[in-house]
Design brief:
The structure holds two protein chains of two kinds. By secondary structure, chain A is of the alpha/beta class. Helices cover 23% and strands 33% of the residues of chain A. Classes of the chains: A alpha/beta, B mainly alpha.
Amino acid sequence: MSDTIITVENLSKSYLLGHKTAQREPYVALRDVITREVGNFTRKAIDLIHGRPIVQGDEIEEFWALRNVSFEVKRGEILGIIGRNGAGKSTLLKILTRITEPTEGRVLLRGRVASLLEVGTGFHRELTGRENIFLNGAILGMTQREIRKKFDEIVAFSGVEQFIDTPVKRFSSGMYVRLAFAVAAHLEPEILIVDEVLAVGDTEFQKKCLGKMDEISRRDGRTVLLVSHNLAAVSELTHRALLLDSGRVALDGATMDAVSMYISKARGAANYVHAIDERTNAIHISRVDVITSDQNGVHRFGEPLEVKVWIKHDRPIPKACLFLQIINQFQQLVVQAWALDPEVQFGNQKGESLLKCQFPSLRLNVGQFYLRVLFREEPHGNLWERLDGICPFEVIRTDKTTPWGWHPEGCVYHEQWHWILGFADEEKKARKPRLDAKRLPQPASSKKTTSTAN
Amino acid sequence: MREPFIIIEPNRRERHYWLELWQYRELFQVLAWRDLSVRYKQTAIGVLWALIRPLLTMLVFTFIFGHIARLPSDGSAPYALMVLAGMLPWTFFSTGLAEASNSLILDTNLISKVYFPRLIVPTATIVTAFVDFLISFSILIALMVWYQFLPNWRMLLLPVFMLAAFLTTMGPALWVTALNVRYRDFRYVIPFIVQFGLYVSPVGFSSSVIPEQWRLIYSLNPMAGVIDGFRWCILGGQSHLNLTNLTVGAGVTILFLWLGIRQFRKTEKSFADLI
């Protein structure tokens, strides 16, 4: 028995994007097809005679979501897969789980594959918790006998015993997710594929998920492919990671290297622009710009920082909520800002919205930072977009020096302070000669600011 | 335990297509059971819906065709009984077709997130139509008791025609289901076909009213053969069965079934990309 459980050889997947045709829509209307068909008939007939593949559309562009991807995974290994949106992560997973077919190349899987592409896939709102366990289990590939055997364990893990005979539509979103994960956690495949599951649930629950995943691979020797935008989680759980960039493997190696390469790659382009914006009309973030005080993503301590977020939506988004998070190079979340409707009105009609977030004086310690943006429907609705590792910038300090220099490890934040020197014996006399030692100047408002974008 | 060995390649023909379908039979059961248990959730009268709809249609048809238009029944069989005997397979066909054609789209999140033989989804919905059929069948029994109409040995052949009804439904259903993923137009075409079919099929009237020279063309509608078969079984000696017409109908059914399965298998791999 070979030790290699997944072999991927030269895997490629292309989508044909037809422009000026209805192909941009996920589905097309018959009327459009008929009109176009008449015009394209001759071309297609010629293509057919020459044995060329037939495609719809007037202007055809081939988009390679994956290009010559090869890698191997050993039994019991946890492999992280990282990369920006549109890098091909989801396509890769969809091929591995046989949801879609590759265009070229091949994959060999030695074992049962189960995927957790979304917690609670196939849950039915009208059915009770008990019924949904059986339904979801069957969908994820468990036999009814297996589910019956593990039923009590699943219920105990989920912690919703009390409500097990209530329709899940009456569940709180937390209960819902817990029950769904409980089912998934009791799958026993040789290969488990996990995609962005950690985007949901509270911190405690996320910890539980991470723990369970670790346990699955360590104790049971199962192979886990973990795809996540959560760089901290990937760093914590995996030793080896695959960095995908524009459908290719940019790096296959130690997770630490992959993560730092991912961040530094992002540094090249300071702003985030949606990779395949032409193709989709659904609600998404089309662009994020960070405007630092200096050029090339360099920001001076204490200066105002601005982040611009462009959102495209094909319908009004009344309950939208945007989270803007600043993450430091140690994968710690250091700043969180949010825009919550109706406090901030955005997206009351379809189109494009621009949100600007201004930090009047960013007092973060020096170091490398990047942004994470979450765009979702509140409370606990759809997660429309999650961008991680975008818009990297560096904070430097030039306003002051210290004998020991500025170090990212020191702390995350510099507060303003001043020292008061008092005389111990004179305190009693209520005499207070003060020595103002105002260490930090107020953020200057008139300093020259240059923007790196627009 | 023997380890399954999976190869993923472009355009790989599934050598074990039907075997795999069998291996996923539990999922089939679960999905059929889900559709059934959800069907009448949060409705006040629940299963009664499966009784009321055919009952009311039967009353209307009997009144209009039997009493106003004064069309003849099959032999001496009560008109209402004849209508119901035709309406049972027709309702099965129309519900099956309508539910199956929408099934994949309603299960979009399953199709785009999990792998399983896609054929399971439309097939499972036809099971719900079959359960509705069984419920409506109780009306037929009640009506037979009411008219004191005694069936004969032919009743035993009813399962054969039930199977025919199933196959006749499956063919167009699979074809339309596969097309519906790519062209949502078919969502609007189906109610039309169902409504249209109700009048071109011998549901409200006996096929004996069709002039002899049109019978052969009429039998191209596979449901005509199925309905005639149902009447032949249920109404005992009162209804006649033309073997030539039945063979033509069976031929059309098989053709549609072949077309449906072919279309479905050809497109099922791209469902996740299209849906």
